Known about the structure:
- The structure is a single chain.
- With 361 residues, the protein is of the alpha/beta class.
- The protein has 14 helices and 13 strands.
- The chain has 2 domains: 2-161 and 343-356, Rossmann fold (3-Layer(aba) Sandwich); 167-340, Glycogen Phosphorylase B (Rossmann fold, 3-Layer(aba) Sandwich).
- The strands form 2 sheets. It has a 7-stranded parallel beta sheet, with helices on both faces. A 6-stranded parallel beta sheet has the order 10-9-8-11-12-13, sandwiched between helices.
- The chain starts with a strand and ends in a 5-residue tail after the last helix.
Amino acid sequence: MIAVGHTAGHVYPALAVADAFRAAFPDVEVRFAGTTDGPAGRLLAARGFALDPVDSSPFGNVKTLGRLAALPRIMAGIAQARRLLVASGSRLVLGLGGYASGPVLLAGRSLGLRLAIHEANAVPGIANRILAPVVHRIYLGSAVVAPKFPRRRRLVTGHPVRADIAELGVVPRMTPERNRAVRVLVMSGTRSAAFLAARVPDLLAELERRGPVIEVLHQSGEHTPNELAHAYRRVGVKATVVPYLDDIASAFRAADLLIAPSGAGIVAEAAVAGVPAVYVALGDAAGGHQAANARAAAAAGAGLALSELEWDGDALAARLAALLANDSAWTRMSMAARRLAVPNAAERIVVDCEALMLGRW
């Protein structure tokens, strides 16, 4: 049973692990549980999976009264998850982060099942901090966060990425050709869509004034695509705006530059693809985890890091113009990204899960 959070950033690594399990062990049944207040059900259904609903409620980034109000819903979720785990005969529960994973993991603990969690970010989330003492293994997306968890139960695996993304790891990356437009991919997260829609068209117009011709593919998320397309036309930048990208691997393959929030999943996928990036951390991300993700990528030379609270379009345009005018600088950033990549993270998790389950299946 894989417990998934309420965002796409939780669902995609869960799907990667599920695919790796089924590739290695075709007779293993993989199921998913989580809340229904996000895109998980839709994304799983598109891949032929169902989401078993389990109640939960946010416990981090809320005040004391909010946490007290969350407790009855969490307790109800634990009872739901117990019934689900018993009915399904689940033996292993893997949590991919987010508040939705809490009731499922705690229910699994009460039933004596084997438990594992994955911490994707450079700063651990509150759910994983609470769950860490009760699980048997803690998988980590990065060694940066390792000191936050017990040495004997932690394992750095990298962040699971889907097979089509993992395949990008062997695709050569070439510097942008001078006889064509620079291809910029903009990927919006659930909460970053409005900010990037308001800032990026003007940023790229300023960048174009400084030299390179720009061609944009902007995933707008929930922000109105028509309004965003008009914003690009207003500033004279050629852009294709889509609510969602069905073929993200192709978009990464074509991109010369990525602008995106610094969620762990996007950082991991861009690393595999070897795409130089501008990571724009959410200003109010819990525990500052997106800022930490961005700083870690920038420290490795894999991108530029800033926060929504630090946005300076003119200064950023100048830095990007310098990067795109210097083939060596672009190549160094691309290669640095690739050094961060762990395209086989999902397979690593499956191998260790099997070790945890030795004699228990």
